[in-house]
């Protein structure tokens, strides 16, 4: 009882405690329709392979007229000192055993991968389903291998013109003079338009493929506690674990 008395005194006495109590919302008076709903969400899948689940989610959020939105991912790399850097890229190709990206081999990410050939990817899709927010996230971790040119030729061929020109005039990450780059762009674009010039893939444009050893799926719908599934590679098989959100 002395402890209770000391707490009341610290709060300014019984009168202050009554004023504080009256200021708090009365949950008993909240109408049933105003109460927040909650629950546990569950990812619905029987897939033994994470690639099958990823393909389903990827197709669900594919936007034909906006490839950036549907294919965007965050790639994180680290150099040999352990310094981490992240950036947003585009998924160029989804294979049966890995995911392919394309970049400039003079970039920081390429230097990181040459020193430390491991990376992580994060995909995030947030949409509305039945007037509720559907949030999905996929985290990928794995070994990274640079692909030979003949294994990535078609990726560069289907690039839009501005991306091909960028590959020719941009030294990724290097300090530039904007006006000089604009002049370089305009001259090259004129050659393409007037001379029907076909831009070939420069040697510094390379592709990397991440071979996942873990893939984690996160999903929530509305005001529910999210569900997470972790796939871990064990030899040729995948072990599946359910994680708390």
From TrEMBL:
<keyword id="KW-0285">Flavoprotein</keyword>
<keyword id="KW-0560">Oxidoreductase</keyword>
<feature type="domain" description="Pyridoxine 5'-phosphate oxidase dimerisation C-terminal">
    <location>
        <begin position="207"/>
        <end position="244"/>
    </location>
</feature>
<protein>
    <recommendedName>
        <fullName>pyridoxal 5'-phosphate synthase</fullName>
        <ecNumber>1.4.3.5</ecNumber>
    </recommendedName>
</protein>
<dbReference type="InterPro" id="IPR011576">
    <property type="entry name" value="Pyridox_Oxase_N"/>
</dbReference>
<comment type="similarity">
    <text>Belongs to the pyridoxamine 5'-phosphate oxidase family.</text>
</comment>
<keyword id="KW-0288">FMN</keyword>
<dbReference type="InterPro" id="IPR019576">
    <property type="entry name" value="Pyridoxamine_oxidase_dimer_C"/>
</dbReference>
<feature type="domain" description="Pyridoxamine 5'-phosphate oxidase N-terminal">
    <location>
        <begin position="69"/>
        <end position="171"/>
    </location>
</feature>
<comment type="pathway">
    <text>Cofactor metabolism; pyridoxal 5'-phosphate salvage; pyridoxal 5'-phosphate from pyridoxine 5'-phosphate: step 1/1.</text>
</comment>
<dbReference type="Pfam" id="PF01243">
    <property type="entry name" value="PNPOx_N"/>
</dbReference>
<dbReference type="GO" id="GO:0004733">
    <property type="term" value="F:pyridoxamine phosphate oxidase activity"/>
</dbReference>
<comment type="function">
    <text>Catalyzes the oxidation of either pyridoxine 5'-phosphate (PNP) or pyridoxamine 5'-phosphate (PMP) into pyridoxal 5'-phosphate (PLP).</text>
</comment>
<dbReference type="GO" id="GO:0008615">
    <property type="term" value="P:pyridoxine biosynthetic process"/>
</dbReference>
<dbReference type="InterPro" id="IPR012349">
    <property type="entry name" value="Split_barrel_FMN-bd"/>
</dbReference>
<dbReference type="InterPro" id="IPR000659">
    <property type="entry name" value="Pyridox_Oxase"/>
</dbReference>
<comment type="pathway">
    <text>Cofactor metabolism; pyridoxal 5'-phosphate salvage; pyridoxal 5'-phosphate from pyridoxamine 5'-phosphate: step 1/1.</text>
</comment>
<dbReference type="Pfam" id="PF10590">
    <property type="entry name" value="PNP_phzG_C"/>
</dbReference>
<dbReference type="GO" id="GO:0010181">
    <property type="term" value="F:FMN binding"/>
</dbReference>
């Amino acid at each position: 009882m002395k402890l209770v008395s000391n707490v009341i005194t610290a709060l300014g006495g019984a009168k202050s405690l009554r004023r504080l109590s009256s200021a708090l919302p009365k949950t008993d008076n909240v109408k049933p329709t105003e109460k927040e709903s909650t629950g546990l969400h569950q990812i619905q899948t029987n897939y033994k392979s994470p690639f099958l689940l990823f393909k389903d989610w990827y197709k669900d959020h594919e936007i034909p007229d906006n490839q950036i939105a549907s294919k965007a991912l965050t790639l994180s790399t680290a150099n040999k000192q352990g310094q981490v850097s992240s950036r947003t890229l585009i998924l160029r190709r989804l294979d049966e055993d890995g995911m392919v990206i394309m970049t400039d081999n003079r970039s920081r990410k390429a230097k990181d991968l040459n020193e430390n050939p491991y990376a992580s990817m994060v995909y995030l899709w947030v949409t509305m389903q039945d007037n509720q927010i559907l949030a999905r996230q996929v985290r990928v971790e794995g070994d990274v291998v640079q692909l030979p040119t003949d294994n990535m030729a078609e990726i560069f061929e289907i690039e839009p013109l501005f991306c091909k020109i960028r590959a020719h005039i941009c030294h990724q990450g290097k300090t530039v003079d904007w006006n000089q780059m604009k002049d370089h762009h305009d001259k090259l674009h004129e050659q393409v338009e007037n001379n029907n010039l076909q831009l070939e893939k420069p040697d510094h444009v390379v592709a990397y493929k991440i071979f996942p050893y873990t893939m984690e799926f996160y999903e929530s719908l509305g005001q529910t506690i999210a569900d997470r599934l972790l796939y871990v590679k064990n030899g040729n098989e995948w072990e599946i674990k359910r994680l708390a959100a």
